[in-house]
Design goal:
Layout lengths: L1 H9 L12 H15 L6 H13 L6 E4 L2 E4 L20 H15 L21 E2 L2 E5 L6 H21 L4 H11 L1 H6 L25 H7 L3
Antiparallel strand pairs: 1-2, 3-4
Helix pairs in contact: 2-3, 3-5
Length: 221
């Protein structure tokens, strides 16, 4: 939810109807970050940083991304070629990959006879493979101009957040609030209509602007 808030309020890169990233595509991008880096993720901000850092450096010009790893564009739409193995020392990565494949097989709806082989993977500027329908490019909504905008937003966000995470936590709150200034402005009351009010004691001095750390707990992160 924190990543979605950043994409929507801070960088304005979310919204398929505007030629930007769709919510489903964003979910797949986030799932792969958990799949690849889960052992090093210790909080919402760590997930956001990994997300921004990884995709700002991703070779979008030559590769697409799937739930199982990068896919060379030269292999698309031939999915018989396996995704490239990520550079990781996580011995459980392959076990999780098998679990993901089992889930995909279980929830994938088989195409009807007349739909078989009628649609190829449409290569665009941002190529994200739908795990439930591999010939569906979840990034097809992104235009060329918005692709460069998205990539720049990832890069700028990664550099800014990377510097913030190096600051001692007691001094980082104002920096984090500034990083999420638009999100906090839109959600300064910290009220969610879908959950009951919860009284939380953070043992910190509160002012008129709630910190992102407080908001993260309220939003269920």
């Amino acid at each position: 939810m924190l990543i979605k808030a950043w994409c929507y309020y801070e960088s304005r890169i979310l919204g398929a109807h505007h030629g930007l990233i769709s919510t489903y595509a964003l979910e797949i991008l986030v799932l792969y970050i958990f799949h690849l880096f889960h052992k090093s993720l210790d909080g919402p901000l760590a997930v956001l940083y990994r997300f921004l850092d990884y995709y700002s450096k991703f070779d979008w010009d030559n590769k697409g991304i799937s739930l199982y790893g990068p896919v060379p564009l030269s292999s698309l739409p031939d999915f018989s070629c396996a995704a490239e193995a990520p550079d990781t020392h996580d011995v459980d990565f392959l076990k999780r990959e098998e679990f993901l494949k089992e889930c995909a097989q279980r929830f994938t709806v088989p195409p009807r006879n007349f739909e078989r082989n009628t649609r190829l993977f449409s290569r665009k500027f941002l190529n994200i493979v739908d795990p439930l329908k591999q010939n569906n490019n979840l990034g097809r909504s992104v235009s060329k101009g918005n692709f460069y905008r998205i990539r720049s937003a990832f890069d700028l966000g990664a550099r800014k957040l990377g510097k913030i995470l190096q600051v001692p936590i007691n001094s980082a709150v104002p920096e984090v609030n500034q990083f999420f200034r638009n999100t906090l402005k839109r959600n300064h009351t910290m009220v969610r209509p879908d959950v009951q009010d919860i009284a939380l004691d953070f043992n910190v001095e509160r002012d008129n602007k709630a910190s992102v750390f407080q908001m993260s707990i309220t939003m269920g992160l």
